[in-house]
Amino acid sequence: MPDRAAVLAVLDAIRDPKSGQGLAAAGLVQGLTVTDDRAGFVMEVAAGDTALYAPVRDAAEAALKAMPGMDRVSVVLTAETAPAKKPARTASLSPQAVDQTRPKAPVPTDRPAHVRRVLAIASGKGGVGKSTVAVNLAAALAARGLSIGILDADVYGPSLPTMLGLSGKPDYRDGMIEPHLAHGLKAMSVGLLTKADDAMIWRGPMASQALTQMLTQTRWGTAEAPLDILVVDLPPGTGDVQLTLIQKTPLDGAVIVTTPQEVALADARRAHKLFEKVGVATLGLIENMSGEVFGHGGGEAEAGRLSIPYLGDLPLDAALRRGADAGVPVGVSAPGGDIAGRFAGFAETLAKKLGL
């Protein structure tokens, strides 16, 4: 296994063309990850210097690939972006002028190859059970006979391997990542590329690059057997990863997961507003952990205020929790139970909304 110190020593033997120092000493090795047979890092340089540093990136990749046991290498070269200039203050600024200073919504490029629909599962706040809902909803959609993939886009806290009982690095064939298969789902997560206890100390560009690679370089479907729906489990918030997804693929809709408390509802509101601003329909809201502990009805009331569909609620349930820990969706472990029935209902509604 490549040693982290050895990787840094190899990178320090390559000189920064500006300072003359080694790459690590010059602070150009950012977000370094070293696993059993691969290494990757981000090289962030000043705007306008990418042409100067392109050969340096190539040299770093070549040096890492030459290390014994190093099979996969990723060196991402990115440029710093200068902060946008604020418009000069004027005595009176018309509403039209204010609108012109706002950034325009990103224009998506194209959906992943052989994928018919892309469905985002989002929450403004962490800890509301979004990943649990995403996995069980994907399994319920697959139980309807649809071809379903699930992408764990939470690169800082990937939970898909645990919730689907997956381990081991995916295979590469013809330049594409072969997703793992579990419970009828095609699954991909950054957690399958790193050790379970690794901390993803990545800046925004590297997180976005990781999502882009998993989204576009995974063999989700084929021309003969396209994927019906790719379910994307987003991280909490409204940051880099969400914007990267919106930029890289047209989204056919989003589902927002919240708990009944106001602190979670406020963040769910922000998540909906993000999708609204970029023209993505919120297909529904799910209230999770509903009941005596966290309250009940807050999600339904919020859906009404936002004029979005309310899909229903999910009470705190021991079988759902045990299934997540054991890597088995509740529709597989307890197919005749109340919770499995609720997910089946959500899946039926969403499949119809997506035209499937």
Structural notes for this entry:
This protein has 356 residues and is of the alpha/beta class. The chain is 35% helix and 21% strand. The protein contains twelve helices and 13 strands. The strands form three sheets. Strands 8-9-5-10-4-11-12-13 form an eight-stranded mixed β-sheet, sandwiched between helices. A three-stranded mixed β-sheet has the order 1-2-3, with helices on both faces. Helix 8 runs parallel beside helix 9. The termini are far apart. About 8% of the residues have low confidence.
List the SSEs and their pairings.
Elements: H1 4-12, E1 30-34, E2 38-45, H2 50-65, E3 72-79, H3 95-101, E4 115-122, H4 130-142, E5 148-152, H5 160-164, E6 171-173, E7 176-178, E8 180-182, E9 185-189, H6 204-216, E10 227-233, H7 240-248, E11 253-258, H8 262-277, E12 282-290, H9 298-306, E13 310-315, H10 318-326, H11 330-333, H12 338-353
Parallel strand pairs: 2-3, 4-10, 4-11, 5-9, 5-10, 11-12, 12-13
Antiparallel strand pairs: 1-2, 6-7, 8-9
Helix pairs in contact: 4-12, 6-7, 8-9
Q: Can you tag this structure with a few keywords?
A:
single chain; 356 residues; alpha/beta; eight-stranded mixed sheet; three-stranded mixed sheet; 21% strand; elongated
Task: Put the structure in a nutshell.
The protein has 356 residues and is of the alpha/beta class. The protein has 12 helices and 13 strands.
